[in-house]
Protein 1
Amino acid sequence: MLCPICGFENSKFDTKCKSCGAFLQNQVYVLNLFETLGLLIFSPSVGFHRIILSRRKNFSILLALLFGIAVSFDIFYLAKVGEKFENLIFLIFNMIWFGAVLGILLVTLVSSVLKILLIKYKDVKFKDCFAMVSYSMFPLALSVFILLPSILAVFGIYYFTESPGPDKLNPVAFYIFYFVGWILKVCSLLLLLLGLKHVTGSFLKSLIHVFLSSISLFVLLNLLTEAIKTML
Ligand SMILES: [Zn+2]
């Protein structure tokens, strides 16, 4: 961002000119959850700009926890844990605590990878990456309130069992939920791509970063699924 007074080239996220101290843009102090999510949907670069400028990254921990619960739902499905738990309540209880821990770990891991990839952009700190990742994952985080309860309402514990599997019990419902789940995953990754594009200004670079983060997440989740299968 070019200073209007002295012409010094500042970064996109500076609020004051580094050379003469002139005002460049308003500092953001707090993030309003619904306002920020609205911005991410209708004007993603403005949304991510506010997230990075904000002093306090409100709700990013909460979004990371919810994202983790959505991921652990998938892991429990892939690991076919249904037979291992006495009832659905006990399974959900374990899924929630496991997911909450996992969410913080996953977002921390992806943010650390991004912080290293974005080493050139010194004004983008780790907490900015953390907030960017957790806010990008909001479509998956919101699935905890709508999609996952709908799946549980239709299939109950049989969503997590192998024989009969949910795809045999009610194929139509299963594939509709499956499709919606994938749309939410793609939307989350697309948002992360747009966030990185806002920071780097390069679509290709952002695509490579999102690809690398997705691959590391995919490998990690597969390892976790295998680990859970052997542990239970
Ligand atoms: Zn200046």
Protein 2
Amino acid sequence: MQLDNLSDLFQRGLEYAWDCEHLLVKEMPRMVDAAWSDDLKHALDVHLVETKSHIYRLKQVFTRLERAPAGEKSEPARIVLAECERMISHLDPSPLLDAALIFTGNQIAHYEMGLYGSLASFARVLGFETVANLLGENLAEEKTADQALSRLAERSVNRAAGGVHQTPPFALI
Ligand SMILES: [Fe+2]
């Protein structure tokens, strides 16, 4: 897609968000299943439900703008989720796996916060106030999800993961 102006950049970012949220809806059930602790399963499950509403809001955004996603792919999300997939298949269920899942969740949440923060600002500049509000709602939920994961990591998971030694030794490469 050609990128000549802020409206084009806005469109590109919306497509990145659209692709990222769809990847998450596919990947997150696997993360929920893989999570070792009930607390993490619950946090991921809550965010899976929110992710579906993020897609719904993005649909509303495209409809209001009379636009459609044209297939731009979010490579950063693909890279992080592919690494998550490898960690799930290599690590035994344990606090170490939970730390890895939170590590992934935090990275994705920050990526999405970057997207929605910029997109809401672009929408306001371009005069789409209602669309900016919809994107702001997604942004707020990404922030809450990120904080919930970080709290879990800092309260218990990372400390417990520090005592885990995967057998046989796990190497990502
Ligand atoms: Fe999201």
